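REQUEST FORM: STRUCTURE PREDICTION
Request ID: SP-0412
Submitted by: Lab K.M.
Chain count: 1
Length (residues): 176
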Amino acid sequence: MRIKYFFLIAAVMLLTRCKKEPAPINFNCDLSGNLTSATSISGNAVTSFDVISGQPGAGFEITMHGPSSTVLNLVWYNLDSVNAENNITSRTYTMPNRSAGLLAPFSVSGQYASNISGATYITGIGSGGTITVSGNTGPGGTISGTFSFTGINPYYPYDTLRITNGTFTKVPVATQ
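STATUS: Completed
RESULT:
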């Protein structure tokens, strides 16, 4: 009788074993530009809070991993702590047209990079955009919102990329 139960339990365990779930699709946006064909991308977004090289204070970043090793970043610079921007139900941030060097005491920026083309597009002189947070429950919770910006390839200033209709939904917020 014990052998029968052993085989029954073993069969149940084999049939119901844990499977690694793929990361959830929690962002999407449309891309178009002078040297880029119009397309849409979607993928998995994660957050981090850390010291950002060359900037005073720390920063909060949403990193979105798309197809073909594309990466899109939204960054809040010069925050005091991971708790600085939580419990938000609606707030719009403007990505300033900025030059090289340090950012304003508190600012946001966007960046898109593609390993296929090797190009990186950043907000900068003559470009900018917005991020609207529609919900942020803080560390250990989630953040959601929309974004759009125009990025410039710093090596070819006439090569611009427009990112529109961007959304990020229930992205887990890092605790540190």
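NOTES: The first strand starts at residue 27 and ends at 33.
Reviewed by: T.R.
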